[in-house]
Fold each of these.
Amino acid sequence: MIIASAQDAADLFGPSFSDSEGETLAVAHLDEGRRLIELVVIEPTARDHIDLPVRRIVEDALKLGSRGLVLAHNHPSGDAQPSWDDVESTRELAETASRLGIRLHDHLIFAGEERCSLRALGLL
């Protein structure tokens, strides 16, 4: 599967959030052609918050030989707009990954039928 657009990512990630009762994070690891290497789903530890584990994501990317990443998480509250923490932690991950030759292509937020792309909003 090639993840070339936000719609491709939405198709991939949508099922990850269908049964989630709390915030869940999914990370798509991609090769240089944006083909999916592996999808990692990080289960929630709290209903309304999930930390973006930058170190774990980068370690996984290095282990898998990822050249790109696409993230997604859900907001059970029903509001797909990114929080300040969502934006800041995504930027931190993008900067860290970039230093290692890994590109963060996008971070999508799902809330019910709505979804939001940080890249499309100009926040990434």
Amino acid sequence: MTDMIARVVEGVAALRREEWDACAGTANPFVSWDFLAALEESGSVGPGTGWQSLPLLIDGADGRIAAAAPVYAKAHSQGEYVFDHGWADAWQRAGGDYYPKLQIASPFSPVPGPRLLLRDEALAPALIAGIETLVERNGLSSAHATFIEPEQVPLFEAAGWLIREDSQFHWTNRDYRDFADFLSTLSSARRKNIRKERERAVQGLEIVHLTGGRVREAHWDIFWDFYQDTGARKWGRPYLTRAFFSLLGERMADRVLLVLALRDGAPIAGALNLIGADTLYGRYWGCTQDVPHLHFELCYYQAIDAAIARGLRRVEAGAQGGHKLARGYAPTPTFSAHFIPNASFRRAVADFLAAERRDVQRDREWLSERTPFRKADG
């Protein structure tokens, strides 16, 4: 594959949707043309954001894209959920410029998925080599592929990239008939607690699920208020623009599940999910009234209800959140891969990752022993 030529273009939106999606597939909405182009066209990434979209492509013999990677030149480390601030500080203390760096990711989306988008799977090594060449020819510090689906980790390992491991909490559908069937697999104490949480959360409220044509611009106006409130508290400045949500509704309505809590017919809280081939992805939540346990209800329990009803295999409810454990979400490994050309810096990062991995795996084992599910002998 040494004779393969990779090219860089300015933005996914400049490419043909059908060519990009032929590589990206349909399983994961966060790497689709619709999602990534909406980020660009809405101004959520691009000038002034610190995210410059530079997708890397390899063309096939038929002249169509045969392999692609969602590559971004980053001027900071915000919106990634895999923290490398310490690496940046060390590099800059040594007199180097850590930024810009390359990020291979779906922006603002801590969602495992493919980072090498392959119509021709044999092109994976050439695509990785193209990313490395882009780093080296431009004198960049590093490249980082974050939230890689587990099946693609060996491809980066084979190329010599450093692998970083972390954990998220995911819910798995074991062919449950309904929520009560899921509850029956939990300990008695947890069943009682969850029932009480759900009852208290929805008291005096109506919960509605909206998807497809039922999601209107008025709903996005409402959800934008929720999102701004949450974003201001978590990040200081929300990453996404209002225009992004309109484009999401326009282009991906059938993959959107908006869960709203209404009081006297007026929305007071909402959770935004995207629907994949076998997974429900929880992304954003917000509220205008504080109601005990309503966050758990909309983001976790309603997501489980929806996944069971749709026959989906998993719910991935985003980054962090040890409180998900008691609600049936189990610790699950996540992976990123890192290309660092500087030999001494690479050794230092490799040593850090080895120690970090031991801690992460030990924590995950400890958490796995404390899930709310009934023990086999109970």
